[in-house]
Amino acid sequence: MSADSSLLMGNTPPSYGTLTIETSIDPLSSSVSSVRLSGYCGSPWRAIGYHVVVWMLAGIPWLLFRWKPLWGVRLRLRPCSLAHAETLVIETRDKEDSSWQLFTVQVQTEAVGEGSLELLQQAQAEDGRSQAAVGAVPEDTWKDTAQLHGQEEAKQVLRYYLFQGQRYIWMETQQAFCQVSLLDHGRTCEDIHCSRSGLSLKDQAVRKTIYGPNVISIPVKSYPQLLVDEALSPYYGFQAFSIALWLADHYYWYALCIFLISAISICLALYKTRKQSMTLRDMVKLSVQVRVCRPGGEEEWVDSSELVPGDCLVLPQEGGLMPCDAALVAGECVVNESSLTGESVPVLKTALPEDPRAYCSETHRRHTLFCGTLVLQARAYLGPHVLAVVTRTGFCTAKGGLVSSILHPRPISFKFYKHSMKFVAALSVLALLGTIYSIFVLYHNRVPVNEMVIRALDLVTVVVPPALPAAMTVCTLYAQSRLRAQGIFCIHPLRINLGGKLHLVCFDKTGTLTEDGLDIMGVVPLKGQVFLPLVPEPRHLPPGPLLRALATCHALSQLGDTPVGDPMDLKMVESTGWVLEEGSAADSAAPATQVLAVMRPPPWDSRLQEEPPEPISILCRFPFSSALQRMVVVVVWPGAAQPEAYVKGSPELVAGLCSPETVPTDFAQVLQSYTAAGYRVVALAGKPLPIMPNLEAAQQLTRDTVEQELSFLGLLVMRNLLKPQTAPVIRDLQRTGIRTVMVTGDNLQTAVTVARGCGMVGPQEHLIIIHASHPERGQPASLEFLPVESSAAVNGAKAAGYIVEPVPRPNHLALNGSTFGVLRKHFPKLLPKVLVQGTIFARMAPEQKTELVCELQKLQYCVGMCGDGANDCGALKAADVGISLSQAEASVVSPFTSSMASIECVPTVIREGRCSLDTSFSVFKYMALYSLTQFISVLILYTINTNLGDVQFLAIDLVITTTVAVLMSRTGPALVLRRARPPGALLSVPVLSSLLLQVALVVSVQLGGYFLTVAQPWFVPLNRTVPAPDNLPNYENTVVFSLSSFQYLILAAAVSKGAPFRRPLYTNVPFLLALVLLGCVLVGLILVPGLLQGPLGLRNIADTCFKLLLLGLVAFNFVGAFMLESMLDQCIPACLRWLQPKRASKKRFKQLERELAEQPWPTLPVDPVR
Questions:
Q1: 529: which residues sit within 8 A by CB, 6+ positions away?
Q2: Is 87 helix (H, G, I), strand (E, B) or coil?
Q3: A single Gene Ontology molecular function, please (predicted)?
Q4: pLDDT tens digits for range 274-330
Q5: Which end of the chain, C or N, has fewer beta carbons within 10 A?
Q6: Cα distance between residue 544 and residue 686, in whole Å
Q7: What is the distance between the alpha carbons of residues 673 and 669, in angstroms, rounded to a whole number?
Q8: Considering only CA atoms, which of 827, 1029, 934, 909 is closest in space to residue 250?
Q9: How far apart are CA 588 and CA 638, in angstroms?
Q10: Four-CA torsion 1118, 1122, 1123, 1127, nearest 10 degrees
Q11: What is the pLDDT of residues 972-1002, one digit of tens each?
């Protein structure tokens, strides 16, 4: 379901039993989802009919209804309105072109105390805390959401259901179910601050009834439950059916072996499933004693499972694991969020500002403590305690959402999997035809009816390969193992194949394309409205506002004796020589008062400074926000008449907050000169504040008040070098036809220079910057296209030390986050054209990165995303292949986690993906050919009233086929990426042609061997009046078995092609050895049968010339199989292109590329688009 299901509360008439919505999903989950709800309730007559049908058909319908629960629901229950539903059918769809997934859930009820679910308006007005008891919402329509049932009801009952861990409650007034996390939608930061006094026990009990316990419950089934689930699955149901047939057909040894293998497989699956469930449960289980506030100033220790939204936590100074999501309302915390984001740098969390804006955990993440993160240190400033108000519990928390994504991963819509199911269905049809033929020939041979039925059904077990899912799984397991050996960990193995289909890869810039650390190049001070020359050593600046801003405008914190925080802040403070301390301001302007931190100057050097600088106390922080692109501090020092505020952030935004007379006239030109050279530039500004110089007064300030009429102070210039691996990787990806896109929060000009330097934009290629203007003063939104001179950008890239190499390519577009937002809102028809040509997306907020990935997926791109997980978690999860660069072994932020600190992991994942996908095609083809080969053998032998023997089936299925099917997947990926891509469609002309021609060759060789045998003078026909296996051994069976056994090996080698996606066959030594050894054994069986002749039920052939003739047939089959594959690879595509020109791709982005090739856009010069 959705994290934003407000549309569920539309005006749905009570008589309707089905509700369909289109709803946005949380950025950490995916893009768009469709959800349909259908209600059903009990019907006595339907229930009686249901049980009669189940009993009359010996429980078979019950088994069928386990696989298709919707059928059972529709037979047992009757449709009804959602208001009276006892059972719900939930249908979800991830994307428009994906299939619907069906789930059934039971509606549960819970009695609630009288009046506890109904809050009067005056009570809400008097007590801000009570407003959030079941939900404070902004619109009038929502003001009765507390009234879950009408006032006339004597006894109130809460109706709800649980789906994928989330709780949905029935809203009587809206006639819809609502996710409980939305009940607090619309709360303001002021509302949260009103909850500092805590909840009463009555309020806490009511909320626990509604929200449920604060636990992330991972169901761990017992072994008997798991056994029932596993044994009654369709796969093992088919196996049980097959074993029963084999026993009836007297294939005791084969049936026993398959039974033992299935039993061992079930036991291993049970152990693995239970172990994984227990590991995940132990990993997420968190039960600690926490201290909560109660009205009247009381405090109480409770178990963390009792927490509900609105509780106020008292955090210990030594920190600990957070059991819920909570907004910090007093004090500061240093938090390690690596378990959620993969970012190992501790983060400073500050108190939530007390303003009327709506609270959002993502927007206010610098003030939010997320569940599962580790609080390293908590410090109280105003008041004795560090306080945090609980905002979300259980599966509604950030950690709960990530756990839910593990338990219920987003379904993968992949053409290969869809086609594989269609192909299995086609094999089932073939089995039906074979069954009809076998009945005809068996009837002609006067076989008894019961024997005829068993033989005919036995043919189904031959054609449909039951081992196909296991064989396909082995491919991804090998790829996963190889990735792990290279330091790349994958928690969703099915995503590996998607890596082979990538069309486009988005890269974060800082820490991904460029080095993590920043080198301070210097500071650009100003005098009046004129920039002075660059000062390489900030510590040599004279005492003044600029030096104070550099020393104090940061979010560093002291952890033990070590300052921790953002690497840029650490470098900036280090360049000044000032030292961070935390505690009371012992020698500040307000002696013995509490402050956030104290910055102490370096030892005084009288040659550089006339007077020793004073230590500076930090009174207030407004931490950096990706959306606002700036941070603010309020400081004071001894002798200061009043505190001062300093702002640090994006130069364009900071300059916009400054008084125009303080901004240098050549600001844009100077900024351009540095950003064009690839430097990262941060602006600093400040102003005095007319308040008392103490912590209490500073904490009352609002950000809007501070960020007005600032005075521009100067620029901090930093150098962020490209990683040495970046340019070669970008070049390799572009050479193979994979688009590369930069998505960064940095300045546009800096991003352009980095893109030039790493080769995303070639030196002779056109780069156009798109600038959008919001509608204002009655004027509509407009677009402006600004061409960038390539020579200037190249010179800037060379000045920054980047090596530039030309890579021919069409136009590139560059834009910032503001323009991207305008395009989405006001120019949706132009957005696809921009996305197809867009290479640089700068100043992108975290949520915009997610939106960009989703928009690209709408154009049918298979999108990869590579970032460090710090502020691109949503994009990493939304992408088809998300790769997080992190030292953590595995991160739930993205399917892939690379311990390599460079983008070299991207080609590795793509190579493994292509190898795995190509191997999957080969294994599927082999398993299909193996089934068809055995099908042909059995049909030939059925025609003469015989069959393969018990041990012969064992030798084929277990010794030959299983061995080669498992080992053929071990072939590693090609060492070099090529432009060719593995096919995504199984039902394509090359694949189907290969299958049909190989089957024709198999049929011709087996029939040729049979007719050659019959034509021999020493041939003695079998006794057709005796059924198999009693008429074994015989010449017909011996020849067919011997030839088909070779064919299994030949086909395995023929479909195991190497280039262009895999290494050559000879590099897979175990597979090669298995082929050679099994081939030698089979040659020995023909020439000198020896001890194996008896157990296998083979008849000795004394004619040596005939034996050599059989080996000649084998050689013919071997050469023919490889010639067919070679011809299909080289000749058939050329013939198809000659007979039928290549059809245009139906993918949306391909169509756009063709349109732009015929009619380029934008054309320059161009007037602004309105």
A1: 661, 662, 663, 664, 665
A2: strand
A3: P-type ion transporter activity
A4: 887 888 788 788 888 999 999 988 899 999 999 999 999 999 988 888 999 999 998
A5: C
A6: 11
A7: 6
A8: 1029
A9: 5
A10: 160
A11: 999 999 988 888 777 777 788 889 999 999 9
Burial of 704 (0-12, 13-18, 19+ CB in 10 A): exposed
Would you state the structure tokens that stand for residue 669, as one six-digit string? 């030109």
The DSSP bridge pattern shows strands 711-719 and 739-743 to be unpaired
What would the pLDDT profile of 84-127 be if each residue is shown by its tens digit? 899 998 888 766 556 677 888 999 988 775 444 433 233 333 33
- From the candidates 94, 458, 508, 746, give the one annotated as an active-site residue: 508
Q: Which residues contact 244 (CB under 8 A, 6 or more apart)?
A: none
CA 371 – CA 320 distance, rounded (Å): 11
Told to judge if 458 belongs to the known catalytic residues of this protein, a careful annotator would answer no
Bond preceding residue 1017 cis, omega within 30 of 0: no
The string of DSSP codes covering 709-724 is SBEEEEEEEEE-PBPT
Q: What does DSSP assign to residue 1146? A: -
Question: Rounded distance, CA 238 to CA 242, Å?
Answer: 6
DSSP letter assigned to residue 956: I
Quote the CA–CA distance of 167 and 512 in Å, as a whole number.
Answer: 38
Q: Give the position of tokens 């049932």.
A: 149
Give residue for tokens 């009693």.
Answer: 1030
Non-local (6+) Cβ contacts of 431 within 8 A are: 459, 460, 462, 463, 464, 935
Burial of residue 579, with CB atoms counted within 10 A of its CB: 0-12 exposed, 13-18 middle, 19 or more buried: middle
Alpha-carbon span 599 to 574, nearest angstrom: 12
Q: Dihedral sign, CA of 1036, 1042, 1045, 1050?
A: negative
Counting runs of H as helices and runs of E as strands, what totals does the chain give? 37, 42
Largest CA distance in the chain: 120
Helix (H), strand (E), coil (C) string for 616-665: EEEEEEEEEECCCCEEEEEEECCCCCCCEEEEEECHHHHHHHECHHHCCC
CA distance 350 to 340: 19
Contact indicator for 658, 619 with CB cutoff of 8 Å: no
Contact by Cβ (8 Å): 367, 352: yes
Cβ atoms of 668 and 655 within 8 Å: the answer is no
Looking from the CA of 739 toward its CB, the CA atoms found within 13 Å total 23
Count how many Cα atoms sit within 13 Å of the Cα of residue 993 in the half-sphere of its side chain.
14
